[in-house]
Amino acid sequence: MIISRKSRYVYNPLLEEDKLAAELEKQGKHVIKLNAGDPAAYFKTPSYIINAFVEALKEGRTAYANAAGVKELREAIAERYWRMYRSSISPESIVVTQGVSEAIDFINAIMLNPGDAAILFRPYYPLYPLYLLENGGKPIFENYYESLSWNIDTEKLEKTIKKNARKKPKYMLITNPNNPTGTVLDRKVLEEIVELANNYGIMLISDEIYDEIVFSNAKFTSISEIAKGMPYAILNGASKAYDATGFRLGYVLLPEHDAKSEQLLAKLVDYAQARLSASTPAQYAFAKALVNSKEHEKQVRSMVKEIEERVGLATKLINKSKHMHVVEPQAAFYLFPKVNLKQLGFKNDKEFTESLLKEEQVQLSRGSGFGAEGYVRIVGLAQKDILSLAINKIIEFCERHAKEA
Ligand SMILES: Cc1ncc(COP(=O)(O)O)c(C=O)c1O
Prior knowledge:
By secondary structure, this protein is of the alpha/beta class. The chain is 44% helix and 14% strand. The chain is globular, with a radius of gyration of 21 Å.
């Protein structure tokens, strides 16, 4: 066999129906794609960021950059954390990566020996178990509970930690705000998670890539505001709040100076050096975007307002159907409804999403790809008329199958 055993874990369930969608398009059918969480496909990347990218190119910023990130960008990121969260983070505690995706890959490669455990929460972002398993890790699953508006039950979490005490998990990874549920974790819950991580000596990692896409009635808390004096890492980047997914820029913050944080930081720099550099002009453009906080706030506010309206509309439409129910999202741009699959005659969520694509030409992602069978993820970024058209198609599809079942 030419491919390794571990490579079997590398597979992105969010894109698995792309081939079928392409075939349908070849037959002249129009597919409404609500499966990819890409804001730049719906909202133009702000022109001041585009101009900064062009300027960087004209200035000849085309050589390899410092592997851990250009100074201007790391300083601008540190300044963002001071401005937004009053967290004092040194630019040297920041490593720039090619998206949060690369950061997740690096962290698993660095921290895990075969058989090492780490705590993930279901529903998860699919890349987390992918890289964990590829590196020989063993996931310990806890949950975000739908009955708690997709928050974490910290008593259950502590039980899970105790049950696995023989082999201490290397890290615990939360997503806040969450993909796929669109939830913001309660500050009190976060404080309890921080305390558990600290008490049991588990590195806490918080993926905060949606930290600025938070709706008007919700309050987001960054781990950097509460996890003081203990090892923790934050993942963030340009993709969502800066609407620049194709720049492929993310970063890891390791704000503290304990031995674990220092070791992880030094190894991250080694990994960054092994792949030489992230995109140089993109880094200069992102640095300018970060520094230009006035322009950014204007842009992000208008994008979030529009997203909130789209997601709100989608929530109302979904909850009119007796075959689906969704907890109203507070952030990001996803809806994660539970579907009464049995009543509709489907054996699982994969069969549901495949049939939906074939019969209605609407592409979603199956919940089982996020570790939550029986749900589907809908991306709420499309314009309102397209989004309502798609959701009405889903509702009609459900009604038709309910009658046939
Ligand atoms: C929770 C989460 N983390 C990471 C990523 C990947 O981000 P990047 O574009 O920075 O690789 C995504 C993308 O959808 C995401 O939803």
